Batch of 4 targets.
Target 1
Amino acid sequence: MSSPGLRERKKQKTRWSIQEHALRLFREQGYEDTTVDQIAAAAEVSPSTFFRYFKTKEDVVLQDEWDPIFVRHLAEAPAELSLVAAMRYALREALADFDDAERTKMLQRANLMLRVPAVRMRLLDNMVTTLDLIAEAAATRTGEPAGSARLRAYAGACCGALLGAMSTWLASDRSADPIQVMDQALAELESGFGS
């Protein structure tokens, strides 16, 4: 796979710079009290440039580089693994290279996704895309159509387990490793919840 060209790298750098400034402002001022104009000014871009990269303020929280990395690891999971075991493998592999700053950013975004009503609603809208990506990766593994009821149920169950795990972790004292909490949720799904 070839690396992105200079133009694409510049676009990615601008996108993630805007997001970094937005997340900093959300921490400092709160989500609701931060405007797109403030984010654009902090990132030294115009508001119209902000909207070229993010359709809405909520999207600056939701968009990330996670999905392609995760889907690649799901596709690369050992063939003998069950679908849920492959999901656990992909989760561990994708997050293994995250440094502390990336983990902190991921957790801040997760907190905003689950606690800010406008972002939570947009998250639900974006869930369909995530379900499609997971079902397509599973289809590659199984040879089944990505739109099959089984693969759609699998994708939905995994997303639901991960969402529930993050919600539980964010409501806790946060002393546990969030990746272990997510892995445990998938382990419960894999075991049929001890049934």
Target 2
Amino acid sequence: MFDEIMQKFEGSPSQQAVIRLLLERGFSVNDDGRVVSGGIEIPNTGIAREIDVDRRVVDSTTTAILEDEELRRIFQNISSFPSLMDLAPVLDLSVLTIEPNDAEQPGIVAEVTSRLAERGISIRQTISEDPEFTDEPKLYVVTDDPLPGDLLNELSALEFVRRVSIA
């Protein structure tokens, strides 16, 4: 799906940058063509500044979104949710990142979370990036407890795992 959305803007790398930002941040586009997070409007100038494009590029991108029924359905229903990942260091939490070889393979989340549960490690949050919307999707698992090295080695040895990291 991500590739299909990006193809609709293939002639404009600047508009693709706007689309990428909207998807990454979970920003919606309301009926007036304004970028919003919930009911809070985000100024187009702020979005433009963040990705180093002209404000008019944001305007033209939101107009194109509203004119395309498929894009309209996606961008009027997307939402963000609070993530503990950035707060982890402040709250003394650990963040396990799994980079899979093939994120569309079934059972990745189940296998990783089962291995943590077997060790009695409490999971506070799990975030799985969608392979349809992200070029290199990852699985993030936020835990209360630090993860032992042998568990990291065990997870690294799983056939679907390309890389494991901890923060």
Target 3
Amino acid sequence: MTDDAKSREAIAFALRLLSLRNHSRHELAGKLVKKGYGHDAVEAAMNYLAEKRLVDDEAFGKELISSRSKRRPVGVSTMRFELARKGVPDEIAGSLLREYDNASLCLAAAEKKLAALHRYDETVRKKKLEAFLRNRGFSWPVVRETIESLFHNRPS
């Protein structure tokens, strides 16, 4: 098979992957390599996709942040780690996370979790909620502020 044919095949495979969901450049290139495409074919495919604006790390990062924020809110540090794990460059991740509303996402996660903790007394609910939010990657000041706002003047 010629290099041009391999490149076209790699592009076709990448397009199938992109039809399922958006991918970062790094993630998509890794999948092409794993599938057995050589360096030249992967590079040609990635250049073609970038030229056609079909692979865009900034758009991918925005989509990932939006999706995670709605489905399973996490703290800014956890979101930064997730973006890095998916191959979004640090400068893009940093830019996207400047607008990340850590406090409101923490509150949304806390309110959802609090509904499941109704059978416990207030002290236990607070402790469990704190552990839950810290495990989600929210910083202590944000967690403390969230818990105080949820339990302030609230009946037990």
Target 4
Amino acid sequence: MPRPASDKRERLTQAAISLARTHGLEATTLAAIATEAGVAQGSVYYYFKTKADIAQAVADGVAESLASARTGLGPEPTDALVGFLGAYVDDSAAICAHGSLLATASAGTGSDRAHREAIDWLAARFEELGFAAEAAHARAVHLLAGIEGGAALARALDDPSPLEREATHLGRWVANASA
């Protein structure tokens, strides 16, 4: 049974994200996106006319995917922050192979949207724990820098242990957080 045409842009965007993460944005071609998404190559041009269009779709698609994933982390701020860290550990095999999804959102795209949205979300959780806005923002940046650093080391060393150790350390830090 053919897929509905209405989901074509979504399929193309997901294909572009997958290819950008696994092969890099520069190696992500319109033909490869079409093949990955299972659509005719000519129809890709309707949605993505340039490499910049692909880059923007990747950046926006990752930001939207990560935002959606954060909504399922729970209403309690400590649980949500620990869940955020756990999502990195759960993705450690892909991170070792290809880097973090957040890194994919900015690599070659020039977009900081996904990073800024993650920091804003993290800061809001720290504010819910009673931290003033400036302190909450500083904690959010610290947490994101730590977990992304662990992810970068896991990728570079092809070893999930730096990521796992950083997630554990940051999880204890979050659990002991009090304003």
